[in-house]
Amino acid sequence: MVIVMSEESHEYQVKVDWTHDRVGTLSVEGKPRIQISAPPEFDGPEGIISPEDLFVAAATSCFMTTFITFTKKMRIEFKSFSCDGYGTLERVEKGFQFTKLLLKAKVTVESEELVPKAERAMELAGKYCLVSNSMKCPTEHENNVVVG
Amino acid sequence: MVIVMSEESHEYQVKVDWTHDRVGTLSVEGKPRIQISAPPEFDGPEGIISPEDLFVAAATSCFMTTFITFTKKMRIEFKSFSCDGYGTLERVEKGFQFTKLLLKAKVTVESEELVPKAERAMELAGKYCLVSNSMKCPTEHENNVVVG
């Protein structure tokens, strides 16, 4: 059970409109529209962002923004951040479900002394990533900090 | 515990590259790139798709594609489909977490006899939506089928 700790809450609203076949348009007010569709393995066309992509993208991008938040709190600088996110979908009792997320992140910092600090910011980002924490499947992390 | 029922699995890969401030680029191979950032309430700029938007969008768009799959299985036609998705983020023990999703969907069909069939397809889509089923929070549905 989830225990709500304060009155602070935020609401996010999106809209999806079907256009044709298995394709539709995703709209968030005041933001660029995105064409979405079922992926090829579920009879959709090639080349269009799928709900499955969005699921993995939500966790991967949240890891980035949470990492940035911790670097600001810790007052550390980094030169680059990139993260590959992999989501595994498996057939379970009730159709399909994501059973695993793997985030492989790479951060570049200017000096050796920043390496353990950036590693700590990545650990904390993994722990407090609100999107991963809202998903049933476990998230594995492979964090890599280099000086460059 | 999740019981895996078969060898069938699918993998989804995305990449996020930090560009500046709390902003980055989301890439899925062969698909359009999307700019992403922390939302304004978490110190990001206005007008850019956030991880929180992506989370709600994943469930809302998956409900659409799953609905379409059931209409094809049931061999029923529909004239339009749209769905508003609302995600509620609340502060819990470990930072924030999505605690509720609400999907308000509207489907238009050509005749009265198609109404209960479309309603059934929406029910099944809610039950088998693989993205919602991969999230911890409950998903509420308000389904509306009209003749038009």
Major beta sheet summary of chain A: 3 strands, antiparallel
Low-pLDDT runs of chain A: none
- Oligomerization: homodimer
**Greatest interface (CB-CB under 8 A), with counts per chain:** A-B, 85 and 85 residues
Question: Tally of extended strands of chain A?
Answer: 6
Describe the structure.
Two copies of one chain form a homodimer. With 148 residues, chain A is of the alpha+beta class. Chain A folds into two domains: 13-49; 50-147, K homology (KH) domain (GMP Synthetase, Chain A, domain 3, 2-Layer Sandwich), CATH 3.30.300.20. Chain A contains two helices and six strands. In chain A, strand 5, helix 2 (115-128) and strand 6 form a beta-alpha-beta unit. The longest helix of chain A is centred in the middle third of the chain and has 23 residues, at 51-73. The radius of gyration of chain A is 18 Å and the shape is globular. Strand 1 (9-20) of chain A pairs antiparallel with strand 4 (80-92) of chain B, so a sheet runs across the interface.
Walk me through the topology:
2 copies of one chain form a homodimer.
Chain A: E1 9-20, E2 23-27, E3 34-37, H1 51-73, E4 80-92, E5 95-109, H2 115-128, E6 139-147
Parallel strand pairs in A: 5-6
Antiparallel strand pairs in A: 1-2, 2-3, 4-5
Helix pairs in contact in A: 1-2
